[in-house]
Amino acid sequence: LQAFDQFDQVRNNYPPVNAYLYMIYSRTGNPKSSGEYLVKTGIIKADTSLLSRDDFDAIRNTQVFRDARKVFMDMLDSLQRSELAFKLNDPGIHPESIAFDPVNSRFYIGSIRNRQILVYESGLIYEFKGPAQDRLMAITGLAVDSDARVLWVASASMKQMKYKEDGEAGSVVHAYDIDSGDLLFVHRISDEDVLLGDLVLDKNGLPYMTNSLSPEIYRANADSLWQWKEFPELINLQGLAMDEEGGLFFSDYILGIFHYSNGEVDRLSHDPLISTKGIDGLYYRNGNLIALQNGVFPMRVSQFTLDKNLRKINKVSYLDKNNHDLNEPVQGTWVGDWFYFISNSPWRYYEQDATFRLDEAPLTQIRRVNLIAN
Question: Which of 46, 66, 90, 122 has the fewest CB atoms found within 10 Å of its own CB?
């Protein structure tokens, strides 16, 4: 018990450790603590097979166990508030990122597998940039500066991408004239420890990007690409979002959501019945964060309502949860008051050697949903 308590301090809310803790507590006759860790696990991974283990026999008939079991069952309830916006016509595209240009009402969609950028407009899909054009790699992040008419693109070397050549490594940032398609400039990092992913623009139209391989955030402008901040206490950075004052939200896939403002970093606090683990895409609007959580079970699209200081999650509402169409949500984009997101990115259809099971992969869905009024 002492050893796992210490581990919990290092790697808080890690499901296997939670599992051992609630088993140990139940074996040692502490149903209250056992129930607390069981609830934590249910919010993160509602695997009901755990509940049948004989480790819980000592507390199975207690109210603590019944309350914890209800959390598991509530998490497994299916919910779908989103509606289908459109589908892509090729299951082999494997999109990871999406952005919207409000001037021309066009969606830009980045492909991991094909290394291309597609446009969806009025029911038509066509290429903005062809496979590996301008040495694009797997497209991991897109953002539109509609005022300056620039499309920012982050891409990275990944084993799932096609047409890979010897020596292709690291990450690349491209900036395109969104109207003409002309390449404005490109910056490259050949370091294999840099995989630039989610991308968000500040009020000046310049990008922040997370490094998925090391807890760092990068920035870029017309002249250069550089490491902006390093967070050695964190583990795996993913989503990014900007608040109204220029503060930056970012998600750690393991540790939850953080907010950077005025040189200080705060981890968003929340009730134990809320999980901020497994967040891929992260998006802010009017005091709320939308989180695409594909590292939990069941997968979910969550709306976190924040306090006025943007330091605490007061409430969680689920927009989608445990339904057939929500099969690995990854990234999204705002279109007015609607949030559009890729709901079924086909990561699960790769073999370990990155062979893609094209005959099994479904057409990718882009779904949309509104915030829930609070």
Answer: 122
DSSP 262: T
Residue where the block lists tokens 């609607």: 338
* Sheet with 216-220, edge to edge strand ranges: 196-201, 207-211, 216-220, 225-230
Please say whether the dihedral angle defined by the alpha carbons of residues 312, 317, 320 and 322, taken in this order, is positive or negative.
positive
Give 372's contacts (C-beta < 8 A, 6+ positions apart): 81, 303, 317, 319
322 close to 298: Cβ distance less than 8 angstroms? yes
Q: What are phi and psi of 336, to 5 degrees?
A: 60, -125
Give me the torsion for CA of 332, 172, 89, 200, rounded to 10°: 10
Determine the Cα–Cα distance for residues 371 and 374; give it in Å rounded to an integer: 9
Please report which helix (H) or strand (E) contains residue 43, including its range: helix 31-44
pLDDT in tens, the chain (374 residues): 889 889 888 877 777 788 788 888 877 877 777 778 888 889 999 999 888 888 788 788 888 889 989 999 999 999 999 999 999 999 999 999 999 999 999 999 999 999 999 999 999 999 999 999 999 999 999 999 999 999 999 999 999 999 988 878 999 999 999 999 999 999 999 999 999 999 999 999 999 999 999 999 999 999 999 999 999 999 999 999 999 999 999 999 999 999 999 999 999 999 988 999 999 999 999 999 999 999 999 999 999 999 999 999 999 999 999 999 999 999 999 999 999 999 999 999 999 999 999 999 999 999 999 998 76
Strand ranges, E, within 212-286: 216-220, 225-230, 237-242, 248-252, 256-261, 264-267, 279-285
Q: What is the DSSP string of 53-119?
A: SGGGTTTTTSHHHHHHHHHHHHHHS-EE--EEEEE-S-TT--EEEEEEETTTTEEEEEESSS--EEE
| Distance between CA atoms of residues 18 and 38, nearest Å | 7
| Whether residue 298 has a cis bond before it, omega within 30° of 0 | yes
Burial of 176 per CB tally in 10 Å (0-12, 13-18, 19+): buried
User: Hey, how many other C-beta atoms are within 10 angstroms of the C-beta on 173?
Assistant: 24
Q: Which of 261, 263, 262, 218 is nearest to 237 (CA)?
A: 218
